[in-house]
Design brief:
Helix content is 45%, strand content 11%. The protein is an alpha/beta fold and 552 residues long. Strands 4-3-2-5-6-7 form a 6-stranded parallel beta sheet, covered by helices on one side. The chain has a 6-stranded parallel beta sheet with strand order 13-10-9-14-15-16, covered by helices on one side. Strand 14, helix 17 and strand 15 form a beta-alpha-beta unit. Helix 1 runs parallel beside helix 3, helix 6 runs parallel beside helix 8 and helix 8 packs across helix 17. The N and C termini lie far apart (50 Å). Bound molecules: iron/sulfur/oxygen hybrid cluster and iron/sulfur cluster (SF4). Iron/sulfur/oxygen hybrid cluster binds next to helix 17.
Length: 552
């Protein structure tokens, strides 16, 4: 039996990846293990939510669930060994929390427990057989509940990712753990009605907002508020390290450890916004950004020549020609690629192996020159508020167009470049996430000194865009966020974009255009609910969408 996975936008044929390997390059056996791990997380949560009622809060368990969910996000971890070990760990943690609960006087009716809480493999053959059997089957009484469970679970994965980044900086909120585990248990409850499952999806949106707010607080309190920055996209003639992904803690420690070594540091893809943080600007060897969105990495990593470190997704299975220059860390993994292990609590991670390798390698090949602008997160935009409000009042700015989300390799994504180019001159693009690489190097000009592309940062910084919208609503004394001159044209790829989407829906944003295609995991009825209740629409042609969104 092969795999079944439909969690990302590139699901084969717009339906699901079903062969021996996914479009992303993940092998069937890895997807089997990922799904078995999620299966066991539900079992662990059955005990941990009961234990919580008795006042038991297990930090190690909470962290394990968070990191496990993060690892199953598209393009994060391709290692069979990692997931095998995590499955063993999950079985152990499940036993421990069950014992803790019973020892504290908790009661269980073993016969009524869900299979995720009771299944124990006798040996590896049985484990493999189970993994294959449950793969891709989000158990549910019907298609609509399955679709709603998928929508919530994928949002939960992104939420876990944001929570994990915040935790790396010492910012925690056990309410998020409580919700994650409650949701995991809900996916085993066939008694819940469609309406109750819709409510769970909305609650996932609420906690997604909370997770993004927590990460925003963690990032800005640790490194300052992003500020307007002109980021160099050319190269220098020193050996170098390219850092990709979203983890700012790794960015900080790498900059610290490379200081004075003669090795330069460049950001890649979703790490570009690190350039906007005041705390990182003091390093002279922090040169700028190299390359574009994640999916171009095969070509760009080749040309970079130096050492490369992936702190989160998106990793594309590396080519042999540069595989020995790639390192993973945190929740990222790929069999045969060196992994930088987590530091002991309170200590810095050790990047020495990356630095020593970089020193032996040639400087990057120049692929671009010039610079790009960014750093328009909430505080920076608030500082420009008078200018922005004036421009809206005088009609110099007629529309804000939120074009946040992800980029991907699908040909149809040219739509976003064409759309940005076709927008009228009196519109401003608000962006966040790797979707921006489709238009952040175009010369779209400015409106009275306000650039026409305002980049807030990483995908999680979509939270900033929400704060900006709420501020405008307040200034213009509007009742409803949808009365603002803002339209939404969101591009999605993996599960963090689902998190952002659910957050926007929870906040009451309506009429979002979503592309390049609607998620394969939406059943016709669930898609109908999203269309009827929230006005979500698939993208169409550039001309048609400009007419509907801007001129309509
Ligand atoms: Fe992109 Fe990948 Fe940030 Fe995602 S690099 S696609 S939504 O991981 O997380 O925007
Ligand atoms: Fe396919 Fe996406 Fe799943 Fe990869 S993550 S197997 S591309 S649906």
């Amino acid at each position: 039996m092969s795999m079944f996975c439909y969690q990302c936008q590139e699901a084969a044929g717009g339906i699901a990846c079903m062969g021996k390997m996914g479009v992303c390059g993940v092998k069937d056996e890895v997807i089997h293990y990922q799904d078995l791990l999620v299966h066991l997380l539900k079992g662990i949560s059955i005990y941990s939510t009961k234990a919580r009622e008795l006042g038991i809060e297990d930090e190690e368990l909470n962290e394990f669930i968070t990191k496990s969910l993060f690892k199953t996000i598209t393009n994060a971890n391709f290692s069979k060994e990692v997931f095998y070990n995590d499955i063993q760990k999950a079985l152990k943690i499940r036993d421990e929390i069950k014992k803790e609960y019973l020892d504290a006087g908790g009661k269980l009716n073993e016969k009524e427990l869900h299979a995720t809480a009771t299944w124990i493999p006798e040996n590896d053959e049985e484990l493999d057989a189970k993994a294959e059997q449950i793969c891709g089957r989000i158990d549910a009484p019907n298609e609509d509940v399955r679709s709603l469970r998928a929508l919530s679970l994928y949002g939960l994965k992104g939420l876990a990712a944001y929570k994990d980044h915040a935790a790396a900086l010492g910012f925690k909120d056990t309410n998020l753990d409580m919700f994650i585990q409650k949701a995991l248990v809900s996916y085993t409850n066939d008694e819940l009605t469609v309406e109750e499952n819709i409510a769970l999806v909305m609650e996932t949106g609420k906690f997604s907002v909370d997770a993004m707010a927590l990460l925003d607080k963690a990032n800005t309190e640790s490194y300052g508020h992003p500020e307007i920055t002109e980021v160099n996209i050319g190269v220098r003639n020193n050996p170098a390290i390219l850092i990709s992904g979203h983890d700012l803690k790794d960015m900080e420690e790498l900059l610290e450890q490379t200081d004075g070594t003669g090795v330069d540091v460049y950001t890649h893809s979703e790490m570009l916004p690190a350039n906007y943080y005041p705390a990182f600007k003091k390093y002279d060897h922090f040169v700028g950004n190299y390359g574009n969105a994640w999916w171009k990495q095969k070509e760009e990593f080749e040309k970079f020549n130096g050492a490369i470190i992936l702190t989160t997704n998106c990793l594309v299975p590396p080519k042999d020609s540069y595989k020995d220059r790639v390192f993973t860390t945190n929740n990222v993994g790929f069999d045969g690629v060196k992994h930088i292990i987590d530091a002991e609590k309170g200590k810095a991670k050790d990047f020495l192996a990356v630095i020593e390798l970089a020193k032996t390698l040639p400087a990057p090949t120049e692929i671009e020159t010039s610079s790009i602008m960014g750093g328009f997160a909430h505080e920076q935009v608030f500082a420009l508020a008078d200018k922005v409000i004036d421009a809206v009042k005088t009609g110099a700015i007629k529309k804000f167009v939120v074009m946040a989300g992800c980029d991907g390799r699908q040909k149809g994504r040219n739509y976003y470049t064409d759309f940005a180019e076709a927008l009228p001159q009196d519109s401003v693009i608000l962006t966040a996430g790797c979707a921006k690489f489709r238009y952040n190097k175009l010369d779209l000009g400015d409106i009275g000194g306000i650039p026409r592309v305002l980049d807030a940062g990483q995908c999680n910084d979509s939270y900033s865009l929400v704060l900006i919208a709420l501020k405008l609503k307040e200034v213009f004394e509007l009742e409803d966020i949808n009365d603002l001159p803002i339209v939404y044209n969101i591009a999605w790829y993996e599960q963090k974009a689902v998190t952002v989407l659910l957050a926007l829906l929870y906040l009451g944003v309506k009429d979002i255009h979503l592309g390049p295609t609607l998620p394969a995991f939406l059943s016709p009825n669930v898609a109908k609910v999203l269309v009827e209740n929230f006005g979500i629409k698939p993208i169409g042609t550039v001309e048609g969408d400009i007419e509907k969104m801007i001129e309509g």
